[in-house]
Amino acid sequence: MNLSGCTRRKRFWLSAASIALVSPAAAGAQDMATDEEARERGQRGDIVVTGTSLEREEASEPLPVQVLAGDELAHRRQGGLGETLAGLPGVHLDSFGGGASRPVIRGQTVPRIEILTDGANLFDASSVSPDHAIAADPLLLDAIEIQRGPATVRYGGNALNGAVNLIDSKVPKAVPQGGYTGATEVRYGTGDEEKTVVGRVTAGIGSFAVHAEGSRHVAEDYDVPDAYGSDRLKDSYAKGSSYSFGASWVTEKGYIGAAYTRQDSEYGLPGHSHANAPCHTHGLDLHCGSHGTPPPLVSAPDDHTAYIDLRSERFDIRADYDRLLPGLEHTRLRLSYTDYMHEEMDGAFLFARYGNEVYDGRLELTHAPLLGFTGTFGVQYTDGTFSGLNVNDVYRGYDSIYDMKTENVGLFLTERRAFGPVDVELGVRQDWRTMHAVKKHWTSYYILPPGFELTPEIEEMYSGFYDDYFASNYPPSEPNPFSVSASATWNIDAGYSLGLTLARSQRAPNVRELYARGNNLATNSYEVGLARTATISDELPAPVTDLVETNKSVDLTFRKTDGRTRFELGAFYQDVDDYIFARLIEEERETGRPHLLLVYTAADARFFGIDGQISHQLAPGSLVTLFGDYVDAELKSEDDNLPRIPPGRLGARYEWTSGPVSADVEYYHTFKQDRVASYETPTGGYDMLNATLAYRFDVGGGKSVELYARGTNLTNELAYVHTSFVKDQSPLRGRSVAIGMRHSF
Asked: Where is the TonB-dependent receptor-like beta-barrel domain (predicted)?
């Protein structure tokens, strides 16, 4: 994309043929095939487009890939991944204060989008509840790729609405020229008194490269417009740190390396109340009063802070090699071990503790052209242990009485070939998943009184009760989701192309959708999973464990990639059998705070939407862009709407560059959402105005310093996002200006 003077500020919306493995800008770890000019740019700290990262094959993709990188990423970064990406065409956010935000792509968030780190799955607890942050630090990313739609079949059914690939430098891919390269950044935000510092360096000698990076940020409760009733949003603070150390052995054919990453975070939960902690069910009746002595949380004051204390440790082994064996064009290996844990604190009380320990391995083999086809065969194995579901256990005086064990084997294959001007791609993936509860000893559930004599007869009796309890409450789940896609791209003259994808994707329900039975205070609800309906009432649908959500979709993309005017326009239609959602059974207001009884249910649904952008280069260094998106969702056989579907949006952006100075201004309008689920209320529309001004100093020797200021919500609009579970308690940030300095060397 030739934008002349705009080349330092880039938002790419390109076919995957032109998207490349984005080199670590600050670390200078360039791809093996990078030319000399790209190396020089990399040492200056610019993002370099060098070769595909989600795909290494050469044919074009029928679906778009967005890449947020370079200055654009540095200026837009905020505490959460959702806030960082919000505003891109087709991307909204699921907001939960300043510490947790998830991207919403084409109307859906996790678990219907997959979060990746350099092509490997990122494991945390974000798919279980919206107050659980995605365990990734945007401050340490070189680029974020968003591939939407069913072309992401190689990542399984959880990527049916898109894959977000987080590109980082923690495993160096090359030895930096000159022996070392790095970057530092400091910034201050006015709206939340944000104070951030980031640093990283890559050094090498001979065939070896080492990398170290770290970040620290502290932000207070953020400002909101006075119309909210307060000038700050209580408990919206966030603070945390992240660091990583990695090393690689680099050869002419590729690299193999490893890295250790540690992330710690603490953030508040706006609108949280423990008043409904004792809520429980009597059949289909939700009762929010306690029987007998209330637990400590009920009698505690309700004005203290509820917050999450998060820790994530991860070990990665990564390797990419070209022509490792005869017949293999490329070999990619991704191995990881993740140890994730967070505690949900309600003042001084521990209400919940979640953990996720996962071993994951992924091998991809790209074969040489065979009968005109080039393709990739892959296998993935995942072994995970999740703990902490049904959070009532902790405040009753003991920890989780079981762990959920998941094993998954996946095989996938993609093949592509060009037939004249038409590129064809076929993809298929088969998964075999087992999920079951791993019981702890029965005394973790039945608490014995002091001095109680445990005889063999009592041991046998209570052990039998315990076995029966698990057999009825946690039956094993063994679904085998299967996904397949076929796509074609017609490359028309003058840079025009037309892409069509047909896909059938299947997704297995996650642990909460299957086995929930308890209070989720973050969403003000008591939730019941698909496999536990019989424990509530015979009036509910019969329990199911092997249900799969089946999405049949059509994606159409029309693009123009040459000339002064370029565009990318997409339309999609999804027909979903057994769409899993939380159905409202009852709303209880016994405590004065509404609490919902929600039962996970499968019903047929339909999605339709359009998104895209059109850019026109007015002059060298002057670019104007129009963008927008719209999603329409419907429950086909239910007299209700799906919850938290984002409204339509239209916007415009102007970017200007002259020498060392660059600037942009962005405005968009988010429309009112009045097609709401039975337990939702309509959400009003809002306007958003953002702007950036930056100046770069060249200090010689491949070094540079940039000063920038980015203002968000400059009109100080009171804005609520319909996609949020706590929209009324957690409006978006008010007016704020982030001032920063970046140094690349």
From this structure: 303-714
